[in-house]
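Handout, page 2. Input:
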Amino acid sequence: MKRSVCALMLLLAAIAGCDDSKQPAATASQAAAAVETVAVVSRTLDTTISLPAQLLPYETVDVYPKVTGFIDSIRVDRGSRVTKGEILARLSAPELVAQRAQAEAGVRAAESQLAAAQAKLASDQGTYLHLASAAKTPGVVAENDLMVANQSAKADNAAVSAAEHNASAARDALRSVTQMESYLNIEAPFNGVVTTRNLHPGALVGPASGQPGAIPIVQIVDTDRLRLVVPVPEAQVGTMKEHQQVDFSVPAYPGQSFHAPIARIAHDVDVNTRTMPVELDVQNGNGKLSPGSFATVKWPLERAYATLFVPASAVTSDQQHSFVIRVNNGKAEWVMVQTGQTVNTEIEVFGDLHPGDQVVRTASDSIRNGQQVNAKSTTQSQ
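Output:
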């Protein structure tokens, strides 16, 4: 029994000794940490960011014929420069020749009928006028004969009107066929460059809305004026201004900078990419820039109001939040923030902060909320 009591006393003494050995370590963890602090500054954001963009032609068109026919000749090929109204290709359509001959015959027939109706009208009107003059002498002309002559003249007048309408319709039909024949000459819709040629002489072609699988004869793009399309992220769309000059560069000319004004703003954020398409109007009369090229834009970023900045190293995060560590009366205080734009080594922060607040320059979640700290104030440029 005595041995059991002695063993128990020894065990309790050992446990007490272990607790005493742990106490200094806990005290050490509570010791004040030495940190460098920096003041939160307030200023208006005015910087540029790099955004990807693409050069597109101001106008581009796939050229289809307006009528179905066979290609007789094509005067252009890939790389050809064309002017508005220039003939690109000629088609042949024998059925249009037959339609034109039929339309011309219809015009001649209608005009012949009109001439006959006009001659009959003139004759009957002459007869009526002669009888009307003679009827002034009583008993010379029967009243019934005068009435018949008058009705004949009225009928002739209606026949002439109908013949005129028929002749007009025949001329319209001829003009329609003539217009269709003019479509056999394929013309350039604007000044540009042929970028693609798909067909050759002998091919059967038709309108894009015609037979399935119809392909364009050529494609033309306007290279003298380009669209630089910039997908601007949702967070950077607030301060865009039309006509504002923007610089950009392209891989084909490293080290060179180009510029163009903001011309068109979509004013609508794409729900899939969360970006807003913005177009710059690029003048390219010298043909130096090529449609389809990618570009890097130095996008101007401004705010109309002042915001707070801290060093980027002052923002840290745990698994749930981003925060800075403010030093207040010698104690660390976690302040939850949202971050904005990064400018050089500084970053915008939005939260319960004020200009002049001292925050830890190099934040870490090892500095616990409420912990005592020894702060040494520095400047942001250090």
